[in-house]
Records
---
Amino acid sequence: MSEIQNYILNFGPQHPAAHGVLRLILELDGEVVQRADPHIGLLHRGTEKLAESRIYNQTVGYMDRLDYVSMMCNEHAYCLTIEKLLDIEVPERAQYIRVMFDEITRLLNHLMWLGTHGLDVGAMTMFLYCFREREDLLDAYEAVSGARMHASYYRPGGVYRDLPDSMPQYEASQWHSQAEVDEQNKNRQGSLLDFLKDFTDRFEGYVDEYETLLTDNRIWKQRLVDIGCVTADEAKDLGFTGPMLRASGVPWDIRKMEPYAAYDKVDFDIPVGTNGDCYDRYVVRVEEMRQSNRIIIQCIDWLQNNPGPVMHEDHKVTMPDRMDMKQDMEGLIHHFKHFTEGYGVPEGEAYCSVEQPKGEFGTYIVSDGANKPYRLKIRASGFVNMSALNFLTEGHMLADVVTVIGTLDIVFGEVDR
Amino acid sequence: MSQYYSELSDKVINTLAEIETVKAVVAHGELTIEVSKENLVRICQTLRDNQELAFDTAIDICGVDYSTYEGSKAYTSRYASVYHLLSVKNNHRIRVRTWLDDDFPMVDSVVSVWSGANWFEREAFDMLGILYSGHPDLRRILTDYGFIGHPLRKDFPLVGQVEMRYDANKQRVIYEPVTIEERVNIPRIIRDDNRYAERLADKEQAGSDDSKSQGESA
């Protein structure tokens, strides 16, 4: 008489469907998951500890590296918390720029998610389509900050600089003829806003393309419908936010509920799901892309007609203009102080959160009045979503675990911090 | 915003009055209450179940080590466990802080109230060594297997205590004491900045007028 035991499977950390470095211990009965125990922390870099030893502005760069698919949204939450403690108001133009780039970031994130989720479930084409569009958006990142991923473009008090008037051009080489390059440069003749305008005109059609491929696709539906269902009460109990919560039918969005930056001045809708399964999360995210596109169009219109400062003018807190630094004594002193000492933030504590593509991303700063945060706690939505994995996969098949991990939209930079 | 939160503060104090008298502070448009660790779970349950408050989501739970705090407020305890709660139903937030013992920081777990608290408490245990009694699975979460110490405690060095490398002779990864030294490029400085003092004093004044239950002020 042999004793029947459950099979323990080690999934990851080097598995393409583990989205990075997830080590998952699965207890299987045949092919049915009995228990899933995620081991995280393989990408832990101690961002919170590092922040305690650095002046406030130096940590902006670390924020990009948390959720490295939604870079600027992370910076936004961090900057908002400092601005709250300093009690300063960001110029309106900077608020619109932040909204525009938050939405570009949301598109970047959702495109990445859709592409890789498609890949996990078996739709190779999605990956190629989504990365084609990401290229344009990353070019926008590059034009404004010089970096394609880790922008560190937002600063407490505004954004680092105004939007550029020209876009970088492709150059002919032995691999690309002049005619080819001219074609590529066609939409890069104007400013960054013209380039984005051209993108938003095309993007709605792209989303239609994705939907024709997936939304009514029989294989896609068989893999997603009724997998990992969460009811509204369960979702709240588990701490879900963002698309994970909205797919369960709760119309909760920080952009509407606690509007920050210029979100109360733009027009958009919040999509909600009904079943709270993987398919609903897919539909919600696709609709969010359309809404983001709407917001970007409104921001472009506003930004084209309203020039103005993009940085708060209290140079005790924000960097002075480069020309001032060279010619004005006070500007020089401010510049020197910024790089040798930073600025002090008044004693107190604050928590600020933004609607990052994955959910609520918040930072909690305790300040004792010094030029470095006393304690910085990062609330990452991926961490919370990950913690629900056992709940979501219990009783599902092994192949569904991959679908659920994909739909959680986890990025290990923010889960492990 | 502050107006709404000072009203909410009164509501919270009245609701919790039968359990204990809580200290409430409204600052930066956020409500903070301080509760004793003995009643924490009961208070959390009330905060969740009372229909007017309905804090249905635990947004964040973290520990704070106040041992090197140099601000004007003097804190008697070293550790605090801080809970950020959100009511999706009523769209408001609250911060609950509870002070813990210095040498044996322990508090009851709130996993029974919000199951989302599970990993947050594991993280606080890992990072600061706060023990959550009644937690179903209090293991380390972010640090390495076999890690010693609690990294976010203020007496834990920034460079860590061990470093890891592959040893070709032993043909495995080994741990050794760190060889790098901690380097401070920009020292930590607190300046007397009177720009904020005035503004904050005004706010605190306004805050204590509409909520009678102001905690000790700065």
---
Amino acid sequence: MSSLYAILHLTFLSARRMIWSRQTVLNLLLLVLATVACIAWSLREDPTPERFVAQILLPIYVAFLLPISCLCYATAGIAGDREEGTLVYLLATPLPRPLIYLAKYAAALTLTLIWTLGGLRLLGQAAGPVGAQVVALVSWPVLLASCAYVGLFQWFATLFSRATIVALGYALFLEVLIGSMPGIVKRLAVSFYAQILIFDATGDLGVASAGPHNPAMFLPIAASAATLVLLIATVGLFLLGGWTFSQREYV
Amino acid sequence: MSQGSGHVSDALPSAGTRPRRADGASGGARPGPEATSVVNLQQVSKFFGPVIALNDVTLQLQPGMTGLVGPNGAGKSTLIRLLTGQLRPSLGRVQVCGCDAWRAVAKRHIGYCADADAFYEEMSGRAFVRLIARLHGLRGRPARQRSEQLLEQVNMAHRADRPIASYSKGMRQRIKLAQALVHDPDLLVLDEPLNGVDPIGRLEILEQLRNLAAKGKAVLVSTHILDEMDKLADRILFLCRGRLIAAGSLAQVRTMLADHPLRVAISSSQPRALAARLVRHPTVLGLRFEGETGLIARVRPPHEFFRMLAELASEDGFEINRLRVLDASTEAVFDYLMETARHMR
């Protein structure tokens, strides 16, 4: 019972420190820029769901804003403590390391979901009725992708002392590179499954055609399989991160 | 555990690598030191890639104050990190109160005051100590009460509402000490706890550490200021190049350094007659007069010299007013041990 109380306290502490961090400022700045882009888009273009997905949702949100928002908080929890040297205080407590990891994960995931889903809603509103209509349908894919990204980036934080830089490199280069590769290699990218789920969710709006021009290159899988992969990735990455954190020496 | 029972399994370097116990105690029917030890290290080695940071260290710590000294790179930090469960031994076993130090359950017994000057800077000292109390499982009022008690103890209660970022080094050290004590640990490990603390603060902290040792806590203090060790520690661990080269009370270690000349100041009403007798004895390597009544003798081995001096006093009637060993300080012993360790290589 005392461990549960301590873990809750650690979760709240981590969340509070993440909120009042430079990561939040960065997130806010990026969201403001994306919102401005959405407003500009809604003024210039003839807004259709297809165009919103192809010109705003996928390139700005899924490929950029979503992974950045996720890595900001996911790496801040453990990597922040490592960089500041305060991890020693947590590791000196009688809390089992997997529970410390869980507390950090819970804090990062909660904030990330608030940010990514809230940000998505804001962008939809900024893009006008069409945007709002699309955004209402893609919350589930965004939620799943956020969970997978948080698991991945927090795992990075257990492995690398400069986890934020490594995660940025992954999100901006490796993920884009893998996601653009022909064949099944792209199935290693979280964004690939997010795109499949987005196309599936917005199919009734005729958005599927906004997908990659060459379906033979895109090689989509079933939405149910994509959901399953993201769920397994989320759980698997969380367990892997917890195990790594409990085994590694941090000095 | 009484003071005399030995806080450390006393050890000195032998010709080989394994330290031996200075008190010469063997197993027999009596329980070994492991039975009452707060800390038990069994043949512990730690490698970082090809580098051996700690090499085959066996020791036990029992309640009382123990100093940990050694030059830079001796393995002090590695030993401390192994004891506090931040590192796992590559070989051997580290136990605290019978638990593997790496495991979370051992942390209930360990209080750690790290050398690193890291804090949640935006927090106040009070909030920080309270936070650590809560992470140790204390809830609401008990956490608050314990925090206040410790802030009083480290003389920070009236300054604890300011953000830690605004604290002086000494204040930060006090807060670190308070958080290390918040769960009433059996073992308190302090890495350079007096760094940056003003002289008055040093005395206060030393007093607190002595009180904790007197209350039955095992306190391990690592410091590079060897003068402090003379005042502070009942027992000292000497580390050099990853090896435990000596352990025991300062007097024990010094006594066993039989082949190292010792300077002894003797005050006598007959200094010239006494000098004439001393200079003929093979244990006296050198002699000089100091003032009207004083003699400074360089002697080796010390225990034979003291036996001879006692005979001179009792049988020949030499009046010895004062006898003082001049280089039995931690620093002198440390210098000699380091020199010995260099020659062992």
---
Amino acid sequence: MEESDSGVKYLIGRSAGKSAVIAAFVATHVATMAGLWFGGVRLPQFNFNMLNGWLVLGLTADPVQTFVIGGILHYTSGIIWGVVFALIVHPALGRFIKPLAALTPTNNYIKGVLWGLVLWVISSAFWMPLLIDPLFGGGVVGPFLTKFGLNGVQALFANLLWHSIYGVNLGLLFSPTPAATRGSWRAASGVGVR
Amino acid sequence: MASRTLLVYAGLFLLGLVLLAVGALTQPYRVGATPGSEVGESLVAIGLTFVILGIGYFLAWANPTQ
């Protein structure tokens, strides 16, 4: 754990920005790999690399090229959403929801989970139906992802699982805590602060 | 207080396991890209979500990096 001059320490790096970028990259990668493995637990596969690649290159481009270009776009999006969370949403949630104001690992985790739910809604309500559906000629993606190709509403909940994995990892890894003492945040904030 | 919090995390995890088990047992096996039952696969997804949330809560509570 590194300590910054701002009175806050992070699990990764010395600044909120650096910590956010690395945490968001890890969260995006874990969620992306999990999405590719969804078939192993009887769920529809979520290959966001290919979906992003198809958006840019179309459906007829070379699959490897589509996966790589789409992957770069997808990881960039994941990191940017993570930075938005860390620098804007995380402090704002602490300001507006008083029980989440204290910088504790549990509160940081809950904020990450909430951000994952927000991204799930954005993905299901807007990204999938408005961008992916027209790509396949329409009728492939239902409103709020209640249909996705041959899949029905299970796609919506698989998308929830995907974004929960992202939010859980982001909330656990982007975890600013008071740097008043080097020993433990418990010593700084008192036992039972949760 | 701490033990009650732990019980909540454990409850979340167990709820996920139950949903996962019910979903896995009630749906026919997915063959390739052909989906199984909507309800079964939805329960699997929701169950896994609860399991992951429960594990995450526990990890945040345990604060293993300290």
---
Amino acid sequence: MKIRPWAEFDSTLPDDQIDSEDEMDILQFAGKGVSEALAEILKGLGCEVLELIYLHERGWEVLFKGGPRGKTLFFIRVTLIDRYLIGLRQARWFRTTFAPRHPDLLSMLTRLAEAMASDERFIDIRWFAQEEIHSGVPGALRPLEA
Amino acid sequence: MDRQFGIGLNQGELLFDVGSVLAGGAALKGLSGAGKTAGGLKTVEHYVARGVPPSTAAYFVQPYTGMGHHYLPRRTRLPELLGGGPIPPAISDSPFFLLKPKGIQMGDMYELHYRVDPHFNGGRVPQRFGNVRGWSGKALGWEKEDALGRIWYGAPDPLKMTAGGALGTGVVGLGAWVDDHDGEEKRR
């Protein structure tokens, strides 16, 4: 089974990028609205959202606790490029390094994907592995699809 | 990025070159060369020659105005023993942990950021530049660093110098210790 923790999609939420007055610079990169929507979904899934973090050119991150006991630390990176690109990751380095296929991650991915698929704000969602991002492959309909 | 490397060469050439060899730095060093102004800044032509669309290249040559690369990710939380909250900005935004080379251009900083942040894949450009689709590091042929490269190239110079200084002190100290003990052996 291949794990695809990255999703690309369009959204009905407004493009919230804020350019400078002369439009030569970006004062705030897009993704706040999508991050807030994801935070809302995560709360609905019983997760504890700790913080929305602005990362300038890298977009936004939603930091939250989830998993069966609600103690696993995750984050979702949100960036608007051509389409929105989000990635769900475990936030602890030892989990990422030594347990990249931890059941908590697989469960969270499945639940997030199901919730996003039934939310009309997210359109044409496709899931990717890291190496598949912007590679031309069409992406999968589910993050844990074979 | 040029400025970052320049500082490293001036203040610790040996240290920097050792790190470059360990982290496969030849590719990064090869970024400099043709397509620069007299002041050493990259030109639009430089980026276009590397496959960047002209509209995006015009944005990439602008001075970088972002927050830089946080060596300690902003999501990092202190251990519960220390309160469990975010790392205080006095630490995470200090020159030891914030990589934001002085005078760096958008394109150089974005590429550096792309290389050292495994979760950064691309971004948008302001509307005036006319590229509404943004840029993708993969599409531009940029490469991600491995773990060692992220540790090295993601570290601000003051941290490298401190770590290098500590390493150097350790090596010198070890050398002195070996000398001392060698001397003891000889004295016996």
